[in-house]
Specification:
The complex is a heterodimer of chains A (76) and B (472). Chain A has 76 residues and is of the alpha+beta class. Chain A has a single domain, classed as Winged helix-like DNA-binding domain superfamily/Winged helix DNA-binding domain (Arc Repressor Mutant, subunit A, Orthogonal Bundle). The N and C termini of chain A lie far apart (33 Å). Chain B is of the alpha+beta class. Classes of the chains: A alpha+beta (76), B alpha+beta (472). The complex binds protoporphyrin IX containing FE (2 copies) and iron/sulfur cluster (2 copies). One iron/sulfur cluster binds next to helix 14 of chain B.
Chain lengths: 76, 472
Amino acid sequence: MEDIKKAILDFAENSKKTKFYFSDMEKAVRKVIPDAKARAVKKAATELINEEKLIFFSTGSTSMYGLKGRGQTEDH
Amino acid sequence: MAFEPREPQKELKYDELRIYTDEELNNYTEEELKDFKIKHDIPDVEELEKGPWPSFVADAKREALHRRKLAEDRMLIERDVVEDLLGQLQVSFDDGETHWKHGGIVGVFGYGGGVIGRYSDLQEKFPSIAHFHTLRVNQPASKFYSTDYLRCICDLWEYRGSGLMNMHGSTGDIIFLGTFTEQLEPIFYELGHVLQQDLGGSGSNLRTPSCCIGRARCEWACFDTQDMCYELTHYYQDELHRPAFPYKFKFKFDGCPNCCVASIARADMSFIGTWRDEIRIDQEAVQAYINGEIQPNAGAHAGKDWGKFDIEKEVINLCPTQCMWMEDGKLMIDNKECTRCMHCINVMPRALRPGVDTGVSILFGAKAPILEGAQMSLLTVPFMKVEHPYDNVKELIEKVWDWWMEEGKNRERLGELIQRWGVPKFLEVIGLPPMPQMVKEPRSNPYIFWKEEDVPGGWKRTIEDYRKRHVR
Ligand code: HEM
Ligand code: HEM
Ligand code: SF4
Ligand code: SF4
């Protein structure tokens, strides 16, 4: 779990875009940990949300993830 | 089966939880309403009041007047919110464009859905709607409420929001329209801890499941739509609140093919009650309909004189598969040809009833999105028995989700993925053989491609061998 969380944070810090889809995050994790299951990636992402390291971003119809403090952080 | 709540249910008492007095709730007269003008000039918006239907503009004006007359400290967001909302709508009519913008990050802690952030881009002109976030509140199965509950949520929303709500959105949820960011957590706390009420789904989540009134009132329900909706809502809480799908995903539950929640048109996975034995016929009641002793359609069309009921014209000739006939004064049905369309049952409910060996048909892929246009769901599982706790259904759901999460592109609905990969691939994923029921017109459209291992004896010819003799 900790290694998946680290892979997520590495991706979130270095990806070109400040907001990304779950599947892109999952693909990035798989590059580092090839056998990571979607459910495990989701659990790790949820922990990071609860630790306030990741944030959700939603337009209403679609949801994305982002690193807290990176890119648009104010709610305007 | 009697309803068994997952956790003990509190009995809400409005008198203990109320925020407003009766005087505050009834604080204006109809006379005052007639003379009431909101603070902006809204000629085009007011046009909407002139049509034949009740208008949201008229309702919004009532709420605007109500808020004008409440004391300043009795509302936690500005009183003008409704007036500014109508004012901004007029500006949108003038400019021919929206003045709302997304607010992607607002939400309640730990939830990736349930709150839809919106801001005005005319905040100086309309400060009270600078923020106008919407909350989706998960409706109870079949939308049964006590008046105490309804009054509690109305008070809560008047106090911490605009007071405007939809009962219900097309998603099924109760929609709270318009509040400021600071109010989101307090509202979530009050809903969750005091009113035992959760938020619904939005974004790339499982959306709030919804069901028809089912066995609570309808004798046609072929399965317990409320129980299944409640069970799957609880079982998939994580999917409902924490997004990991490529896009939205909806379950809807209809107890019979009348499809009162339109699952066939609106759900990625539609559950429609059906039966696999025979329509139950009460021949005496059939005669009573023929003799005019019972009104057809339970009297629903009694407002106009349609003449004497004619079973030939109104039932038998309208059967889409032509599987009914009269024989020696008795109504006959060739049940293996019946498609369970419900027409004959709807016309003569006292004579005809669904069979007793009931279950669900499961259909996949309905949507009304931008990419490929609207599409109905595809019949995939013609019949499945369903019993609490629905393990067979959950197994199927998870196979579908695993595939879609693996192969679906961002913002691709399940129906679009099925179109992109083809139905045979989808059937392979869920482990079902192709069946005539899956094809719209099986007699004229036999496009099911067989693999060698599916055909007894296989086949010996190869395309290479054929091409040697028939060059392209
Ligand atoms: C006694 C003579 C024939 C009989 C009884 C016969 C019968 C049929 C039948 C029952 C079908 C299937 C229709 C369907 O799709 O439901 C068919 C298709 C067809 N027949 Fe014939 N046929 C005869 C002669 C021929 C001849 C001489 C030709 C060509 C030179 C021909 C060309 C075709 C073609 C191209 C199709 C369509 C095949 C496809 O859809 O892939 N038939 N025929
Ligand atoms: C310029 C001439 C032709 C054109 C433009 C043409 C075009 C087509 C098209 C568009 C299809 C439908 C393919 C599909 O949707 O799967 C088709 C099917 C077919 N054509 Fe032609 N065709 C021509 C000539 C011919 C000739 C001369 C024959 C027979 C001698 C023929 C026999 C067939 C048959 C049997 C099919 C059915 C194939 C199947 O369904 O698998 N066609 N053709
Ligand atoms: S869908 Fe069928 S079972 Fe459900 S309420 Fe409508 S008629 Fe009754
Ligand atoms: S349910 Fe529909 S298809 Fe079946 S017998 Fe009645 S009218 Fe015909």
